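ok so i was messing around last nite and threw this chain in just to see what happens. nothing serious, just curious
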Amino acid sequence: METKFRCNCPFTTALDILGDKWMLVIVKQMLMENKQTFKDFTESDEGIATNILTTKLKQLEAFGIITKTKLPNNKKSNIYLLTEKGLAMTPIIVELGIWSDNHLRDFNPTIVNEGGIELLRSNKAEFTKIIVQQYREKMAASHLNNSYKPKTKT
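result:
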């Protein structure tokens, strides 16, 4: 996959890859909601269209943010897992959550006010560490039979 970058700025380069409305949502779903299969993503509250989801998953895989593999007990189903590069996005997701919590409640008063929000507010480093640790533990204990090892792509 060839990507045309607008300039050499590191911020703009990151936004050229992650700046549309779905890329970070998919990573957040994987990281915090344990979404792994195409069906998991299509059944989420965000309501991503299947054609868009297909494109975004391919892009995330091409950039080494996720990896696609087969379930050991069902070779027909693909599962998507975050790579180390994908897990390294956790602080970005956390910062977006903090910013949203602090600045967008007036616009969306139904923003979740539970599920670790106090820890997020009081200690973002610990919150981030816990999210990554929980993801790793879920993957290790999952149907992958302890074979999960996040891949790194350069």
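not much to say yet. The chain has one domain: 10-141.
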